[in-house]
Amino acid sequence: MRELAVYYNDTEAGILTEKYPGADYTFQYKEDYINSALPPISATLPKQSTAFNSEHLFPFFSNMVPEGANRRVICRSLRIDENDFFGILEAMADKDFIGAVNIRRINND
User: Fold this and answer.
1) Digit-coded pLDDT (tens) for 38-69
2) pTM reported for the whole predicted model
3) Would 109 be classed as within a structural domain?
4) What are phi and psi of 16, to 5 degrees?
5) Spatial separation of the C-alpha atoms in residues 65 and 85, rounded to whole Å
6) Domain of 13, in residue numbers
7) Is the dihedral of CA 101, 106, 107, 109 positive or negative?
8) For the chain, how many structural domains are there in total?
9) 6, 16, 49, 101: which has the fewest C-beta neighbours closer than 10 Å?
10) Bridge partners, residue 7, by sequence
């Protein structure tokens, strides 16, 4: 199982989880975020208390993964399968993303 924190600007919005390699994904908003005035991270992921579930990585998150030559360069240099979108997101965590939503590693200290 792999997990990543999803942030809206500097506010943690929720947790993205991959239960099995390449399958069974959930996104769960944090209760504090649901109760805030901040918008949902995506129109396809409206604020709600129950988790979103999908067999495939949610399109909103897969669209955050680079395409074409950029993806090939990242995957080759980091030795990540080009089809491992969650792994690519994980490798890009804590880096700059375009827009208000970004991905960070979960610090379990």
Assistant:
1) 999 999 999 999 999 999 999 999 888 888 88
2) 0.87
3) no
4) -100, 130
5) 7
6) 2-104
7) positive
8) 1
9) 49
10) 12, 102
